[in-house]
Amino acid sequence: MTQQATDRNETEAEPNAGGASAEPQGEARGSLPPRARIDVKHVILVLSGKGGVGKSTVAVNLAYSLANHGRTVGLLDLDLHGPSVPKMLGLEGQVPAISGQKIEPVQVTGSFTAMSMGFLLSRPDSPVIWRGPMKMSVIQQFLEDVDWGPLDYLVVDLPPGTGDEALTIAQLAPNLRGAIIVTTPQDVAVLDAVKALKFIEKLEIPVLGIVENMSGMVCPHCGGTVDMFGRGGGANAARDHGVPYLGTIPLDPEMMKAGDEGRPYILRHADSPTWNAIDGVMENLVGQVES
Question: How far apart are CA 2 and CA 238, in angstroms?
């Protein structure tokens, strides 16, 4: 991993496991590896059953909201094949620094850091062509070999679906408080969101709640809301499956623009209905995790 952070090439090469690794925290759990030793109070997974529902947008803005409310936050982008967090944070081209045998996460704000495979690629369009064991090794190194420092929250942005990345982080992350399921209102998205929910339940991880994203579009001219994809699918799924409903986030052209430009939405729209909706999701999450 140290060599990757320095050279940022050879995405098909075996990662260098020579960096510092944590001593086992307690005994190994049967055939499973011990959980990583990092100083974090709450690890939160953000996942979806399918792509295109704005999961990374929710993860990035949730992390911003937590940091804006006084928490020390790390954002771990585990969408190894399609890392979008560097672009959304406006940090493309940033190279993580090396301190001793540790990798320093990239600083977003004074209390918000991030780590992503996108920071280690020689080009933003370079593909990562890895099988499962390679991904498990890198995820372990992202936990143990990155100098996160003390964190209140580690928000983990997972790729769509229920594959290796989600299984690995569930096995390795300490203080895993639960998972947030992101969906859009329409039935086809909710169907896959329920699959993700059942996957989390099978792993015996708490489902912290469902977020309905893109629930109504905010008109850039009049400020009214148009239900382009319907409304209420996420709330109905939460009710039907007995899990919390964390809230609704509208489809806002300004949020899409902020992500494409890599400029924090909160800096220009702190009092907008969309940001208030994100803050509401954050407050509902904190109410569950910290109560």
Answer: 42
Q: What was the pLDDT predicted at 30?
A: 56
Please check whether residue 19 lies inside any domain of the structure.
no
Burial of 91 (0-12, 13-18, 19+ CB in 10 A): middle
Helix, strand counts (H, E) of the chain: 10, 11
User: What are the backbone angles phi and psi of residue 3, rounded to the nearest 5°?
Assistant: -65, -35
Q: Is residue 12 part of a domain?
A: no
Nearest-angstrom CA–CA distance, 255 and 121: 26
Total domains in the fold of the chain: 1
CATH number of the domain residue 176 falls in = 3.40.50.300
Backbone angles phi, psi at 167, to 5 degrees: -65, -45
Q: Distance between alpha carbon 143 and the CA centroid of its chain, in Å?
A: 14
pLDDT tens profile 159-197: 998 889 999 999 999 999 999 999 999 999 999 999 999
Note down the domain range covering 130: 44-289
Q: How far apart are CA 187 and CA 246, in angstroms?
A: 19
Is 203 a domain residue?
yes
> pLDDT tens across 226-281, in order?
787 778 899 999 999 999 999 999 988 888 899 999 987 887 788 888 899 999 99
